[in-house]
């Protein structure tokens, strides 16, 4: 059996692709997704977020060590499938993100890396960061279609021009909408969110159930089955993928007046499943999101 290592430590790698519907997965080359957590701080204070208590916390970030980790992945002949800039909210530490971008741009060997900015995209600083051309995709957390309700969810003021996205390549954007009891929790509410996505011109949206990180999430959890996405008129199933009991996702299309939006549904996910996922938090490289899994 082939073992894969980083800095002399064994790591978990997926050997088979996801099952596509009822079809078995096929062998895939060794690859990793690298999540780069640039900060714990955030401009919002969402009750469902594991970072909710870290709204003002920042930490030292070693950019040189990050690139030692990236080079080690390459040296071990492992494909770096995706580099995800995440947090917290990355736009509260633009100097860190800019230093990462500068180093990525300085060498042609980093060009294949796929960048993913996890941002709420609703404030001037985050919108400014979204204009960086180096990002291949940008995920925006937007958990309701009504701006006043969004302010309530985020526990912060949302400006009226928050979703105009001037100067941003909108084809790169993905909306991420948490299902929250009392907010987006029914087919009717989900359809309004789909219509909002079309109205602002974003081509894709993902609906995700809350992870059980605190009591709020447990009390406000909405199962995707309650949304009954395929009961919404003009929603069409396209495919589903799964890794058995560890995770399953489904994809759909929604059509309104000749305009289409892609829909991603995360049916379920085991938060302890971490094959092919590594995390760099500015100081340490870990397998998965658990403190005791330090690799380097």
From TrEMBL:
The keyword S-adenosyl-L-methionine applies. Residues 28-250 form the Radical SAM core domain. GO terms for molecular function: catalytic activity; iron-sulfur cluster binding; metal ion binding. It comes from the Bacteria. SUPFAM superfamilies: Radical SAM enzymes. Its cofactor is [4Fe-4S] cluster. Signal peptide: none annotated. InterPro entries: Aldolase_TIM (IPR013785), Elp3/MiaA/NifB-like_rSAM (IPR006638), Radical_SAM_PqqE_MftC-like (IPR050377), rSAM (IPR007197), rSAM_sf (IPR058240). Keywords: Iron, Iron-sulfur, Metal-binding, S-adenosyl-L-methionine. PANTHER family: PQQA PEPTIDE CYCLASE, RADICAL SAM DOMAIN PROTEIN. This is Molybdenum cofactor biosynthesis enzyme MoaA. The lineage of its organism: Bacteria, Pseudomonadati, Bacteroidota, Bacteroidia, Bacteroidales.
């Amino acid at each position: 059996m082939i073992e894969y290592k980083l800095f002399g430590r064994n790591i978990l790698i997926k050997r088979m692709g996801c099952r596509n519907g009822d079809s078995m997965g096929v062998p895939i080359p060794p690859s990793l997704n690298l999540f780069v957590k640039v900060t714990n701080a955030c401009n919002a204070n969402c009750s469902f977020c594991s970072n909710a208590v870290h709204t003002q916390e920042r930490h030292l970030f070693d950019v040189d060590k990050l690139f030692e980790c990236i080079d080690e992945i390459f040296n071990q002949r492992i494909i770096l499938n995706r580099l995800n800039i995440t947090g917290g909210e990355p736009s509260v530490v633009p100097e860190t993100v800019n230093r990462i971008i500068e180093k990525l741009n300085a060498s042609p060997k980093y060009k294949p890396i796929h960048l993913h900015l996890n941002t709420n995209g609703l404030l001037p600083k985050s919108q400014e960061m979204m204009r960086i051309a180096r990002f291949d995709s940008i995920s925006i957390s937007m958990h309701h279609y009504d701006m006043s309700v969004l302010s309530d969810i985020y526990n912060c003021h949302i400006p009226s021009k928050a979703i105009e996205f001037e100067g941003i390549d909108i084809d790169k954007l993905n909306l991420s909408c948490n299902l929250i009891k009392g907010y987006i929790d029914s087919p009717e509410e989900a359809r309004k969110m789909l219509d909002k996505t079309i109205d602002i011109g974003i081509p894709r949206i993902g609906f995700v159930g809350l992870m059980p990180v605190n009591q709020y999430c447990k009390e406000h959890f909405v199962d995707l089955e309650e949304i009954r996405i395929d009961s919404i008129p003009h929603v069409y199933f396209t495919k589903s993928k799964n890794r058995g009991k560890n995770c399953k996702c489904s994809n759909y299309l929604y059509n309104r007046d000749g305009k289409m939006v892609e829909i991603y549904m995360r049916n379920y996910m085991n938060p302890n499943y971490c094959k092919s996922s590594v995390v760099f938090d500015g100081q340490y490289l870990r397998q998965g999101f658990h403190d005791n899994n330090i690799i380097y």
